[in-house]
Amino acid sequence: MTSESVLVICTGNICRSPVAEALLSDGLESNGLMIRSAGTHAMLGHPPAPEAIAYVRGTIGDFPHRLGQQLDRSVAQQATLLLTMTEQQRSWVLRTAPRAIRRTFTLLEFARIAQSLPQNATFSSLQDLVQACTPLRRKCLRPGARNSIPDPYGLSPEAYAESFAQVHRACGEIIPALRHRLPTSSR
């Protein structure tokens, strides 16, 4: 990951993180950010779950071919922003790549923080935006706020629908916050 990148992380890298990767890629394409995903315990080489593929195709119409990838220290250290689905995954990332502490958030946490950035603030890079978000972490803490999106893998269709809806809502808050505060790509 040589350009600025967002790394979305879940457990198996076949449900939640591929959905978030696809939604963020679609919404932030004009900003030239590289969006990738990985798993803390990835199902290496496996395609996304059929439910994830169906959700993304029903939402944005396309699901780029991708296979499950394992998160490791190198991948984590290269990402500009790391977004996990759960607090436990955030802890796992920080044990694996301690230097990523100021760049690692849960998806729900970052959605709240991104919304609290000053209305007209713009940033020359994703790195600058992430640095501005880090001190807002405490300000955006809400007692009892959920920071984790449950893993639907192997559960009911309703569990998939609820999990993917939470991912979609969070991405729907993150995309405009980043799109309008970062320069567009000349690529």
UniProtKB/TrEMBL annotation:
Membrane-spanning ranges: none
Annotated InterPro entries: LMW_PTPase, Ptyr_pPase, Ptyr_pPase_sf
Record's protein name: Phosphotyrosine protein phosphatase I domain-containing protein
Occurrences of domain Phosphotyrosine protein phosphatase I (ranges): 4-177
Native species: Brachybacterium vulturis
Coiled coil ranges: none
SMART domains: LMWPc
GO MF entry, a single one: protein tyrosine phosphatase activity
Superkingdom assignment: Bacteria
